[in-house]
Amino acid sequence: MQYSPTPYPEGGGPGLREPRETEREGPEDTMGRSVRRILAVVGVAMFALVMVGQAAFAQQYPPPSTTTPPTTTTPPTTTTPPTTTTTPAPPPGNLTVPPTVVVGGEVAVSGTACGANQSVDILFNGVKVGTGTTDANGNFATSFTVPAGTAPGTYTVVAQNQICVLGASVTVTPAAAAALAFTGSSGTVPTLWVGVGLVALGAGLVFVARRRLSGARIG
User: Fold this and answer.
1) Which runs of consecutive H residues, i.e. helices, occur in the chain?
2) What is the pTM assigned to this prediction?
3) What is the pLDDT along the chain (219 residues), one digit of tens a residue?
4) Residue 115: which of 166, 167, 161, 168 has the closest Cα?
5) Helix (H) or strand (E) holding 167
6) In what order do the strands lie in the sheet with 106-111?
7) Contact (Cβ atoms closer than 8 angstroms) between residue 99 and residue 170
8) In whole angstroms, what is the distance from residue 44 CA to residue 72 CA?
9) Is 162 left (phi over 0), alpha (psi -120 to 50) or beta?
10) Which residues pair with residue 171 across a beta bridge?
């Protein structure tokens, strides 16, 4: 409702008069204003509900964490090669035999590096002819006899067991040749002495002959 001021009455003092209604509102204006008020109240209420709902949802369902986990760096694995232990090889053994032997003669055999306290087989021309036993240092010494029917020539002597295989060569000579060689060497000494005696006898005869010749000239 709008009011307009009333002029003062003529000849009179100031005073107030009842306002007069200048314009009246229609029912449509009143309804529209009421609807707008209701809509405003409803809008505020809905906004408040939305805000309260968002706050409750955020509290009940927090957003997922975006924190990046720390990166773990695995150091490279260092593989240590296996340790190889090298066992030094045992020293090679030696087999010792005489260079020559007569048929039916005895052959002395000695060897080394065949293991401590071990049995050793002795082979002559591939046939076992004897055995030996090593000491604490793997050394041994034994002998065998050359078979009577062995032909002259060079033969291989082998000493063997599970630890060693040793070989050497020996030359077999006829028994008669050996006897002749021994006889010749033994007769050389008397012949030498006979020669010395003959020379001395000749020198004595020459000396006596000269003495006699000198005595005859003086007489």
Assistant:
1) 27-60, 175-218
2) 0.43
3) 444 555 555 555 555 555 555 556 566 677 777 878 888 888 888 888 888 777 777 777 666 666 676 777 777 777 787 777 776 666 788 999 999 999 999 999 999 999 999 999 999 999 999 999 999 999 999 999 999 889 999 999 999 999 999 999 999 999 865 554 545 444 544 555 666 667 677 676 766 666 666 665 555
4) 161
5) strand 165-173
6) 95-96, 106-111, 140-145
7) yes
8) 53
9) alpha
10) 100, 154
Pair type for strands 100-102 and 165-173:
parallel
- CA 7 centroid distance within chain: 128
Alpha-carbon Rg for the chain in angstroms: 73
Q: Can you tell me the distance from the alpha carbon of 110 to that of 140, in angstroms, rounded to the nearest whole number?
A: 6
CA–CA separation, 199 and 104 (whole Å): 44
What DSSP state is assigned to residue 109? E
Contact indicator for 112, 138 with CB cutoff of 8 Å: yes
